């Protein structure tokens, strides 16, 4: 998962003390869900066994903690290059918020902030850090829209985030940790930050409801808009982390401005799915003009040596638990770009990879320097870790 470095004593002890056998309780929880999805039960069990140490910055997930600031930097560069909100095609309801105006029509306010979806959130390292950039709830008597617009983070411009993961153990860890932060907890209570124990396939399936459920949802939305703030939905109870796949945490026509996919593609189950189909499913949930942003590892000889042979070696050399990676599941940049273009052409029915102005592609390598941390280094994409992004073509104005 990362270029090697020598961990400090505490980190080494945490890695060496990882359980050789996964507790039966974890195996039972994992095996009862997600048989027909992109989720590998073996990998799900492996990562669930790390849940208790997920938030230890010196533990087995240290690499993810160190990489997290780079995720924000890369997202910021994508937004600066092309902001999803400059598109005028926003007629669907806001995710995790109620965007209906007083007349019941959908809001087209292009300053409402960006709606995020974090797929494969794990214990919430990125999701929680993003939630901290969401503006606090407006004071009573203050216009909700104006408050949000004035306080959006200049880096993320986030107004809401839905974070999903197929592991009930991870979602429990993530939710528990988030509640310890008063600001993040308030976002959980308001619904602007939500964890959901589900899969990408289940979320996508819930985006195509039956006519009856669509009618019921429309009635509920109409009722809600008459009794709540025009831009913030504030449920009385914290969001559920149910493992049910029959319900959706959002509206029937959900689409997001930014979808993140960090260190996920290399763990897709090849027997029930593929990175190519997984990318297409992600793009289906992406708003025209929105960004699908991720990070993964190149399938090359240098990456095999660095990310599997060395990184998974016994301590004090290795930095991630053995079994974290499978080299043949790594994905190269050219493959990703090709899959994204083909997926957009299939979704939008356009020869240029988008519905109007074509897709935008962005990719840069990431290298870890001991003592300095992770750095984005163009031209190093084939050495190992790299960040990538694809922007869905905008609708014609």
Automatic annotation (TrEMBL):
Source organism: Paracoccidioides lutzii (strain ATCC MYA-826 / Pb01) (Paracoccidioides brasiliensis)
HAMAP family referenced in this protein's UniProt entry, alphabetically: UbiG
Pfam families membership: Methyltransf_23
Gene3D superfamilies found in the cross-reference section: Vaccinia Virus protein VP39
Protein name: Ubiquinone biosynthesis O-methyltransferase, mitochondrial
Region (Disordered): 206-252
Lineage of origin: Eukaryota, Fungi, Dikarya, Ascomycota, Pezizomycotina
Pathway assigned to this chain's UniProt record: Cofactor biosynthesis; ubiquinone biosynthesis
Chain sites annotated for binding S-adenosyl-L-methionine: 71, 120, 165, 262
GO cellular component: a single term: extrinsic component of mitochondrial inner membrane
Swiss-Prot/TrEMBL keywords: Magnesium, Membrane, Metal-binding, Methyltransferase, Mitochondrion, Mitochondrion inner membrane, S-adenosyl-L-methionine, Transferase, Ubiquinone biosynthesis
Catalysed conversion reaction: a 3,4-dihydroxy-5-(all-trans-polyprenyl)benzoate + S-adenosyl-L-methionine = a 4-hydroxy-3-methoxy-5-(all-trans-polyprenyl)benzoate + S-adenosyl-L-homocysteine + H(+); a 3-demethylubiquinol + S-adenosyl-L-methionine = a ubiquinol + S-adenosyl-L-homocysteine + H(+); a 3-demethylubiquinone + S-adenosyl-L-methionine = a ubiquinone + S-adenosyl-L-homocysteine
Requisite cofactors: Mg(2+)
GO MF term set: 3-demethylubiquinol 3-O-methyltransferase activity; 3-demethylubiquinone 3-O-methyltransferase activity; metal ion binding; polyprenyldihydroxybenzoate methyltransferase activity
UniProt key word Membrane: yes
């Amino acid at each position: 998962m990362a270029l090697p470095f020598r961990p400090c004593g505490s980190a080494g002890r945490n890695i060496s003390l990882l359980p050789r056998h996964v507790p039966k309780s974890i195996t039972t929880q994992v095996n009862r869900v997600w048989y027909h999805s992109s989720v590998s039960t073996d990998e799900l069990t492996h990562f669930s066994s790390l849940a208790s140490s997920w938030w230890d910055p010196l533990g087995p997930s240290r690499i993810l903690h160190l990489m997290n600031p780079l995720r924000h930097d890369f997202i910021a560069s994508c937004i600066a290059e092309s902001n999803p909100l400059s598109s005028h095609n926003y007629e669907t309801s806001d995710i995790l918020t109620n965007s209906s105006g007083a007349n019941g029509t959908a809001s087209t306010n292009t300053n409402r902030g960006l709606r995020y979806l974090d797929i494969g959130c794990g214990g919430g390292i990125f999701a929680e850090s993003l939630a901290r950039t969401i503006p606090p709830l407006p004071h009573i008597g203050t216009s909700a829209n104006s408050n949000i617009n004035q306080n959006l983070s200049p880096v993320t411009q986030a107004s809401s985030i839905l974070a999903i993961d197929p592991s009930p153990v991870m979602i429990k860890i993530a939710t528990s940790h988030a509640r310890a932060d008063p600001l993040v907890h308030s976002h959980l209570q308001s619904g602007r930050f939500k964890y959901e124990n589900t899969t990408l396939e289940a979320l996508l399936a819930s985006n195509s409801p039956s006519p009856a459920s669509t009618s019921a949802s429309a009635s509920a939305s109409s009722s809600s808009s008459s009794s709540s703030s025009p831009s913030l939905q504030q449920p009385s109870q914290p969001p559920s982390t149910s493992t049910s796949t029959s319900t959706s945490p959002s509206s029937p026509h959900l689409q997001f401005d930014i979808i993140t996919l960090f260190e996920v593609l290399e763990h897709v189950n090849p027997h029930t799915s593929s990175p190519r189909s997984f990318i297409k499913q992600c793009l289906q949930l992406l708003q025209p003009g929105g960004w699908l942003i991720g990070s993964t590892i190149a399938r090359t000889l240098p990456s095999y040596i660095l990310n599997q042979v060395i990184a998974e070696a016994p301590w004090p050399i290795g930095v991630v638990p053995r079994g974290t990676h499978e080299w043949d599941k790594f994905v190269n940049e050219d493959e990703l770009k090709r899959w994204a273009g083909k997926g957009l052409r299939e979704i939008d029915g356009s020869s240029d990879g988008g519905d109007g102005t074509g897709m935008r592609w962005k990719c840069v390598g990431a290298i870890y320097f001991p003592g300095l941390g992770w750095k984005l280094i163009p031209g190093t994409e084939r050495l190992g870790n790299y960040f990538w992004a694809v922007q869905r073509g905008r609708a014609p104005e």
